[in-house]
Amino acid sequence: MAKRLTRREFIRDSLLAAGGLYLTRFTSLRATAAGNQKPWKWSREAMFYTLTPRGARCEICPNECTIRPGESGDCRNRENTNGKLYSIAYGNPCSVHVDPIEKKPLYHFLPGSQSFSIATAGCNFACMNCQNWEISQTSPRKTRNIELFPEQVVEQCLSSGSQSIAYTYSEPTSFYEYMFDTAVIAHRRGVRNVLVSNGYINDRPLRTLAPYLDAANIDLKSFSNDIYLKLSAGTLQPVLNTLKTLNEIGVWLEITNLVIPSWTDDMDMIRRMCGWLVENGFSENPLHFSRFFPLYKLTQLPQTPVSTLIRARDIALKAGLKHVYIGNVPSMDASNTTCPNCGKVVLERRGFSIYSINLKNGKCAYCGSMVKGVWE
Ligand SMILES: [Zn+2]
Q1: How remote is the CA of residue 103 from the centroid of ligand 1, in Å?
Q2: Per-residue pLDDT at 1 exceeds 90
Q3: Which end of the chain is more exposed for a tag (fewer CB within 10 A), N or C?
Q4: Statement to judge: residues 117 and 228 lie in one domain
């Protein structure tokens, strides 16, 4: 059976072919669920889709895949079964861990606390540098899963002593229904919710979820639409929209920018990105420049030189961002939080551990200035 390409796949494949690159994604993707009469396992009907003459159009993310009966979407965990769209990720996490919140990374949100972290297989991007590609670029049908329903996630979170649940590792937008139901129960039980995402989500599902979110770390992978297309098979504008919406709604937001040699280390682009962030009201949102390690389809590249990360950080500070961190590099001063007024260290970190805190009720212990964040 010939593989039918969506418009997005066509654009990406054309771009990659033009650049001499080759992605092995999407092979036999659309045949995975063929012949199924019943939805797989604990599948739940999707929350955002409409029926069209060509199939179910998923409206969870800007990909807006139109999915015919027996097929699945680009994220590999939304399937059309007998004309209805289902999320097959529901209750099927493949990763469950207790992590320090600093690992997300979130540096201004409940520092030193633990976050109960879950993921299912699936992602709506296809990043060539993905560090979790073994779970993000596959379907829940193919991973080893742990049966865990929303009530159980919250129970396990509480018994682990974690203060929050993080939806992370792969792409939570692709397991939206599972995340949403879990987040609602979590709030009822006094547990906070953390979204770690590529930000590639439509406005309506984002605004529906946001009242249950307490913090988010969104990847801003580059400030170029062309690089988004080539590196991730996505686009830039929806991610910028997500950043604005989260800030507007008041969800605590931190931003991560992975600096990949020859892909996203153009200092002019970083300057434009930081300028946009300051102009749009993000100067007090922490920005994490993260070090790249050769992985997945970019193993031929070197790891990011520390000097590049320092240059990027200097540019961001000069642009007016108040809290700029360097991640994935041990023992750097750039992982401490300083007071934006007096410049003294108010939170000292060693790796993912908190070494000292000089904050009182969210204010600098030296000069009394407010340091933005969710500190308790
Ligand atoms: Zn101060």
Answers
A1: 26
A2: no
A3: N
A4: yes
